[in-house]
Amino acid sequence: MTDELAHQIVEIAVAARAIEAPDIDIAGNTDSAGTDSYNEDLSRRRAEIVRVRLIAAGVATESIHATWYAASNPRVPTPPDGHQPLNRRDEVTIR
Predict the structure, then answer these.
(1) How many structural domains is the chain composed of?
(2) Rounded CA gap, 78 and 45, in Å?
(3) Would you say 93 and 54 are in contact if contact means Cβ atoms under 8 Å apart?
(4) What is the DSSP secondary structure assignment for residue 64, as one 8-state letter?
(5) What is the longest distance spanned by two Cα atoms in the chain?
(6) What residues make up the domain containing 37?
């Protein structure tokens, strides 16, 4: 995890704590490089890392819902087995 990403997670936690009853969705994603099984596990681990960090930053566990999509939810189209850094991401939505 980069320092920039760690800082973004802290900013997300601050925003979430400012809401009386936040509803937070975390979506883990990968690019299409690698096997389906590997990408499923990787996207789960990505979402879980953000979830754990948000909890450590003071966000209530019950406010956070993590899901993972492997390579099925690309930000930009890529060919099968394609490397695309923009698709390797977590998306966090606060309502």
Answers:
(1) 1
(2) 22
(3) no
(4) E
(5) 43
(6) 3-94
Q: Give tens-digit pLDDT for 20-63.
A: 999 999 999 999 999 999 999 999 999 999 999 999 999 999 99
Q: Which two tokens stand for residue 81?
A: 């087995």
Q: Tokens standing for 8?
A: 């973004």
- Which CATH number covers residue 52? 3.30.1330.60
Write down the residue that tokens 């939810």 correspond to.
73
How much is the pLDDT for 74? 95
Phi-psi region of 58 (alpha: psi -120 to 50; beta: other; left: phi over 0): left
**Amino acid identity at 58:** G
pTM above 0.70, yes or no: yes
DSSP bridge partners of 28: 68, 90
